[in-house]
Amino acid sequence: MWFPLLQVWEHPIGICMLRGAVFGLTRDTGKAHLAKATLESLAYQTKDILKAMEDDSGIQLKHLRVDGGACANNHLMQFQRYIRF
């Protein structure tokens, strides 16, 4: 699943015209699946931003320090670690 709605971070203009779609749903898909997909999309977006920072600066980041409400979610933090390194 991919959540294009979360792309609003990059393009805040035109928020009223945003549309999103969720693909791959079955009858077995529940709230937990959607929550997991949302968290994982946050991790992938963070990965993309970090990659862009590394490419632009020529410096490889060795550590990622986090704070805020999202870091209270263990799945998100573990998944972020898994896809980052």
Head-to-tail CA distance between termini: 22 Å
- The value of Rg in angstroms is 15 Å
Largest sheet: none
Subunit arrangement of the protein: single chain
Helix content: 40-55%
Structural class: mainly alpha
Number of helices: 2
What is the mean pLDDT?
A: 81
Residue share in β-strands: under 5%
The gross shape turns out to be: globular
Uncertain regions spanning at least 5 consecutive residues: none
Give the tally of β-strands: 0
Strand and helix order: HH
List the helices and strands and how they pair.
Layout: H1 31-57, H2 74-84
Helix pairs in contact: 1-2
Explain what this protein looks like in three dimensions.
This protein is mainly alpha-helical and 85 residues long. It contains two helices and no strands. It has helices at 31-57, 74-84. α1 (31-57) packs across α2 (74-84). The longest helix is centred in the middle third of the chain and has 27 residues, at 31-57.
Summed up:
The chain has helices at 31-57, 74-84. By secondary structure, it is mostly helical.
What structural keywords apply?
single chain, 85 residues, mainly alpha, 0% strand, globular
